[in-house]
Structure formats: C-alpha cells, structure tokens
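Team,

Forwarding the record for the chain on the shared tracking sheet. I've put the sequence and predicted structure together so nobody has to dig through attachments.
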Amino acid sequence: MSATAEKPATVKPMPVKGGVVAYLQLDGAMRAAEFYQNAFGAELANAYPPDDRGRTMHAHLYINGSSVMLSDPFPEHGCALQAPQGFTMTLMVDDIEVWWKRAVDAGATPMMPPTDMFWGDRYAQLRDPFGVAWAMNQGKH
C-alpha cells in the first residue's frame, strides 16, 4: 500500500489505549492475536488483511484495558524477524490465579507460578508460544 493509498474498507480505526503501547513483531501476528484472545482475553480492535504471503502488517488488540500492536516481519522493508529479548510484557491483574490458569490452559509456558513477593504483591511469569515473556502482577488489596 502506498503512503497515499486509502486504508482497505475492512479496516476501521480504533482508539489506542494506554500511554505507552507495545508493538510486537512476531512470526504469525494473527496466530498471536488469536492466542492472546484465548490466553489474556484480548479483543481484536482491527487488523489489516494479510498480504499474498499471509503476513499481516498491522493488528491492534486491547488487552486488559490497553492497546498492544502486532505485525509479521517484513524483511524486504527492513523489518526482519528477531527473537524477543530484553523485555517483559507485564499485566496488572486483580485475580492472578484466574489470569495464570487461562494463559497456561491456552498454551503459555510457565516460568514462575504466582508467588507472594518481597514487595508485597503476587507475581508470576509465563512465555507465550511466540517467545514473548509475560509477567502478571497482583497488587495488595
């Protein structure tokens, strides 16, 4: 799509939620969106249709009140796939056991089960099938 071309009719802009928004490049952005729907209760706000190779250049999700953006790699445009590293996506949750179980049941790999931490919160870590590390934090009530 050229910079001056209009968006496809199937894409409806949706408001971006959150002050800082993660944009994840994953091998299989729409498969990841489906996984995040099952694991984290994500809602698909919108997505560009896949190209002739099945790659999605943009998907917008709402997860736990914030936006998360996804795309497939496009190496021909300088966006080659790299393994996720050096960051953790953190979900602030009210019932960590419910969130934890849903994510594990959906296929996330446990890294650290929900645990009472020295700072007073309950905390857990998982890894999704796309290699992204996710933490869950339940504050004191």
